[in-house]
Amino acid sequence: MSAMRFTSRRTVLRGMMGGTAVTVGLPLLDCFLNANGNALASGKPLPAVFGTWFGGLGFSQGFWEPKTTGANYTMAQQLVPLEPFRKKINVFSGLKLYSDGKPIQPHATGPAVCYTGDVESAPHLASLDSLIADAVGQDTRFRSLEVACHGAPDSFSRRSATVRNPAEPSPIAFYARVFGADFADPNAADFKPSPQIMLRKSVLSSVAEQRQRFMQDVGVADKARLDEYFTSLRELENQLQLQMQKPAPLEACSVPNKNEKEAPLGSVVDDAMENHRLFAALLAHTVACGQTRVFNLMLSSAQSNFRETGSADTFHVVTHEEGTDAVLGYQPKTYWFQQQTVEALRVFLMAFDGIKEGPGTLLDRCLIFNSTDTGYAKLHAIDNIPLMTFGSAAGRLKTGYHIAATGDSVTRVGLTCQQAMGMQVGRWGSGGNQTNKPFSELLV
Amino acid sequence: MAMKPPVRSALLLALAALAPQPAAAETRSFVVSWFTAAAYLEENNCPHGLNPDAEAFFRRDLAAVGESQEQIDAILDARAGAVVGGSGTPAAAAAAANALTFRGRIDGKPAHAYAFPGSVPDAHIKTIESKWAYGFDLDGKTGAASFEDPDTHEKGVDNEYFRAIGCHGPERPSAADPNSTMWAYAWHNLRQSLPAWIVTVEGADLSKDGPVVVKFEKAMEFAPLDVNSHTMADKTFRIDPDPRWHNEYKATLKSGQITTDTPGGFRMLYDSYWVPEFDLRRARMRLTLNPDGTVVGIVGGYENWRSLYFAYASFGINAEDQAGLDVPGTYYALKRLADADPDPVTGENTRISAAFRFEGVPAFTVPLRTSQVRDR
Amino acid sequence: MRHFRNLLVSSVCLALGSLAPAVAAPEPPTTGGDVVIRRLTPDQYQRIVRDVFGPTIKVNGRFEPEPRVNGLLALGAGKVSVSGAGLAGYEAMARDIADQVVSPANRETLLPCTPKEARAADDACARQVLGAVANLIYRRTVSEGELDGLVRNAGAAAGELKDFHAGLSLSLAGLLVSPEFIFRKEVPAGSGDRIDAFSKASRLSFFLWDTGPDSELLRAAAAGELDDQKGLARQVDRMLASPRLEDGVRAYFTDMLGFDAFHTLTKDAVLHPKFYADVPKDAAEQTMRTIVDHLLVRRGDYRDLFTTRNTFLTPVLGAVYRVPVAETGANTEPSSWVAHEYPEGDPHVGLLTHASFVALHSHPGRTSPTIRGKALREVFLCQKVPDPPGNVDFTVVQDTGNAIHRTARERLKAHATEAMCTGCHKITDPMGLALENFDASGGFRRDENGVAIDTSGELDGVKFTNVAGLSKVIHDHPALTSCLVKRVYAYAAGHQPGVGEDAFVKYLTTGFSEDRYQLPALLRRIATSDAFYRIAKQETAK
To answer: Could you tell me if A438 and A410 lie in one domain?
Structure first.
């Protein structure tokens, strides 16, 4: 009887946990990691990490979309600085927002749909990153971390309309929060296994005990199929067993130097770019040290207020005022501001790709969702919103593709991200923005 | 807006069967996909340059009402820092916005610059100086101040609205896209939540020259967009029976171009935050039926200039700070260039000649059932 | 949509008041078929969860796909297992569902009892909850011993976590991960040549309702009523009269018509700009509504589905078809469905002219008479069209801008002059070309590249000049009805009928004709037959 066995397991559980941490003496260089250093010796890979990266006012229509689709696309003019990372970048063009007859609020509607899947950003809805944090962020020190580079605590991350996750605008304060006194070495020897995991495993064991009864009177062909089911069950039990053990030390984790300096917090482009550089490095170390599995970064706000030193005209004003250059085919100053976004992306990708984990890099383990508020900035269009993803979510997302998905809602990318992060979600978004179509061609 | 020519002949029969009213021998309906001020693209029609940006006209206006250089710098510094993420505090931001909004003076006291634009000195903004503008000769006079239409070469064209706003950067179209002005920005953001506008042309045979009837009406539904974010073709609309939004003109079709025969009214519900409704008087219209099944046209007439001013005033500080449009300056230009219907008491003109450009894609129309009228 | 379905349902109930077979011909003997264990389809999984726990519980997750076997995913469900990733998915879904059931928002309405102490085990309450659902989830009477185990699981976890509901949730999740739930296993009765009563109940309910048996059916099975012809007929008639019959009929036709392909259907945005997110959904629904209305509400002749001028449209489908369809609701309400009758002589006749056929069986940017002809033969006539050989040069066919060959007919003619292609294209193209008036998104067109489209052709020796003619030929084709019979039977029984079942399939086909090709009568004939529950003796693995 399954229940009898369960009782005996429970006894084991009591002994193992008893509600207190179990300290296991470990040699410092344990054999937990495999030879490549990117996984536990058992083959369980380091966990995937999700991030969002937002920069306001998008790119210039016709200058960011790759001319070819699929793999091995050629970087379009505006994104050429990202060429070194092309194989780790997916570019999505042609995606739009469906307003469903509701009034469009320029700047607000875009992020609302990208982050919550809902054109009105309905009050009960949590943002994409928050949904993912609910699923993967429970066991880390921080459920999620938010930073903003333009001086204000802006963030699109929210658990509901009333519970927003404010961003940290100061790199110095962020360092103190993550790497200050409360920072715990991920390689420390103390470990407290989760009772939930053990109980889940016990339930699966009792299911496994149904095998004999269920296999009675089964035909030869069917037996092979059911054997597969029970093998899968065993695999899952083993995975849970692994989670009962102390996790592997994080080889790539190193504490960054304390940054004593930061640029003035504000919307002057140069300052924001400098603070972004600091944040990119800090976040990379934070993630490598397993402090969080979800983060949100905002380079500039929606309706970007970036401006050059000494000028009061913001990026946003420029998009409205500036004419389209007849020869170039775009608004030149608008384009210049947009190139700052591209440059920041380059710096960010360098920081994450620069941390090696086994044969790959930290970036490979991440899935970063890059969005903005408008398509064609001069009109504040809500179609052809430029979206990108960086990294492969620890191998669960194919990268290096340009997907031209004209007419589909941006929510397809959000749904793809959730599934790549291992969430059991079949549908996301509401109204015309609801989708049940992830980009399956990218999911591994 | 490329699209395949729709197959109409078979469908017209089906339509005729559905329509309870006798239809003309050939009826073609279109849903309006773009509606913007008709702005002609010309490099040098602002020989004195474009109007200055927000910082410049803020400085100018603040100086004109007697703010010291020091005070002006302080307000603009607060404004620069005011934008979210700036070095200023939210309170300083609000104070700066307030100082700019109330930069008018009445009896020496701060006055709201958009509600009382006359409280800000007239800056005499730059306006169009050129021979060319879209529109119609509305008054039958070909004065020195009138334009010539670049398409029809009609002389004596009255379009003082274009003259008034044409040197604002955001109101100028680009070579790449005629729909890239502030009017296009408004249309883009309103079109999915605006009851659709329907143009209908009726005639004996629209492939031949002859008399036709043109209707410009309001539908009950919004116009949905297709995957390319263009207004979807071949969608069906119910016509709003409200007589206020029913405009009908006798017109003549000649060589594919339709021109209304006599001036008439043009009234259409728009958006309460932009221009609540159009009410053009002595309006004229022309339309071209394109071979691809679409329509483009121009409607011109005399509009109450205060209605047009409202679009700028209701945006207020955002129009100025975010889009760089000088609101009081525009007020003075509209008032000065208004060219029709003087107020019997003050003698000031109450209306300004204007022209608007529209595009449309094929649509079906059905009358609204009585029960649905009750349901509204 | 809900009110529409209710409308349909009440008419169905009326129409099905009496369903006696037209002629009581004797059922021929049969050898029975193989017993095949089937994995629940995603729809079945979701429907059972809804049936057991109510509509507030959402099923979130991805299911592993089934392959299509002999034209049906239902047969593919008998070929698949559960992979490691798949099981992790089932386990996550199960925990998610169980957590929703016991969540503070739902527990008061869904759970029949409250624990004496929320932070401790309560075996009596756990037993009440698990007892109420275990039979429905395992689709049989769960033994007291099994229930004891489930209650102990819940209790042990509740004690460990100091939370009654968390413990209950874990035990519930265990039920949903069990092979008893995920797989439809059919157990031979004592005699060995028929399936047992609970297996009968499952066959019936998945066939007619596409979900697990309800309590009444399980009761009847436990009481031995399904082993008695009268008792069986009573249950079958109850099920045929239920509004859930619509679920079953939709499930069958969704499978047969291959509508799973809509999930991945895309159209070229430049050429077909109206084909946006909702259109594929509406196109599939148009066909489903037409089928349900015709077969269940009107109790129509199956063959008339191919010639009917009646259908249902939304405003956006109206735009695709270029037919005026006005909204009937207020501005911001979702598009509503409108019954639409095409006028006499209109080219839109029957299912073949629905976007769900012509758009589904086209390329993203161009039509394919070949793909349409192949689908027509395979989906509706159960004929197998060979796949194209390798090494074929498709350049001419694909070049819709070809200056010389301006219509699909001309391009295919140029292509099929290659000897290796001629044979197959003769099988598919003459019917496919009759549908050339419908572009790759389902829109109507009279010409292609300025050349009038010639829609003449022939099918199995009968000539026609246009799509109405083709539809008539399909309507009268003997394979149309025999194909449906064979496929419905295979769908219901879980295997392709074998030689030993030929006589029975023939008997069903004759009966279908005697029943004036009414689907509910066919369903009843199968469900009340002896053959449906017969199984061939099989070698069992030890």
So the answer is: yes
**Interface partners of C (3+ CB pairs, < 8 Å)?**
A, B
- Which amino acid is residue C296, in one-letter code? L
Contacting residues of B for A316, CB less than 8 Å apart: 322
Burial class (CB in 10 A: 0-12, 13-18, 19+), A226: buried
- Cβ–Cβ below 8 Å for A235 and C84: yes
> Which of the four pLDDT bands, split at 50, 70 and 90, describes residue B70?
very high
Please, what is the end-to-end C-alpha distance for chain A in angstroms? 39
Residue B28 pairs in a beta bridge with: B201
Pairwise CB contact (< 8 Å): A1 & C183: no
- Given B7, B195, B237, which is nearest C445 (Cβ)? B7
Q: Are residues A55 and A19 in the same domain?
A: no
- Determine contact, residues A277/A266, Cβ cutoff 8 Å: no
Interface touch B226/C324, C-beta < 8 Å: no
Q: Does an H or E element contain A239, and which? A: helix A220-243
A89 plus A11 within the same structural domain: no
Describe the crossing of helices C502-514 and C478-493 by its angle, rounded to 10 degrees. 120
**CATH code at position A113:** 3.40.720.10
User: Going by C-beta distance under 8 Å and a sequence separation of 6 or more, which residues neighbour residue C186?
Assistant: C35, C36, C37, C195, C196, C199, C202, C203, C494, C535
Residue contact C326–B236, C-beta within 8 A? yes
| Distance of alpha carbon C97 from alpha carbon A63, whole angstroms | 46
pLDDT digits (tens, 9 = 90+) for A208-240: 999 999 998 888 888 989 998 999 999 889 878
- Do A267 and A305 lie in one domain? The reply is yes
* Residue A41 belongs to some domain of the structure: no
CB contact under 8 A, A232 and C61: no
Q: Do A383 and B228 touch (CB under 8 A)?
A: yes
Distance from CA of A65 to the nearest CA of B (A): 15
Express each pLDDT in C273-314 by its tens digit. 888 767 888 999 999 999 999 999 999 999 999 999 999 999
Summarize chain B as % helix, strand, coil (round to 5).
30, 30, 40
Q: What is the DSSP string of B229-295?
A: SSBPTTEEEEEP--GGGEEEEEEEEETTEEEESS-EEEEEE--TTS-SEEEEEEEEEEEEE-TTS-E
What pLDDT score does B163 carry? 97
Residue of A nearest to B77 (CA): A312
Q: Where are the domains of chain B?
A: 15-46+126-375, 55-105+112-119
Residue B365: strand pairing partners: B237
Structural domain including A179 reads 48-186+250-442
**pTM of this structure:** 0.79
Q: Which residues of B touch C343 (CB under 8 A)?
A: 13-14, 17
In a domain, A106, yes or no: yes
Q: Residues A115, A151: one domain?
A: yes
Min Cα distance B226 → chain C (Å) is 5
Cα gap B14→C321, rounded to integer Å: 13
Give the pLDDT confidence of A90-116 residue by residue, as tens digits: 999 999 988 877 777 778 888 999 999
Q: Whose CA is closest to A127, among A54, A18, A229?
A: A54
Residues A145 and A233 in one domain: no
B2, B4, B236: residue with CB nearest C325: B236
> Exposed, middle or buried by CB within 10 Å (0-12, 13-18, 19+), for C463?
exposed
Chain C residues near residue B228 by CB distance under 8 angstroms: 269-270, 273
Tens of pLDDT, residue by residue over B257-280, are 999 999 999 999 998 888 999 999
What are the structure tokens assigned to B212, written together?
């036709």
Q: Look at chain A and report how many structural domains it folds into.
A: 2
Write down the number of H helices and E strands in chain B: 10, 13
Amino acid at C321: Y
Which residues pair with residue B231 across a beta bridge? B225
Same domain, A205 and A312: no
- In the numeric block, the tokens 């209908």 are attached to B200
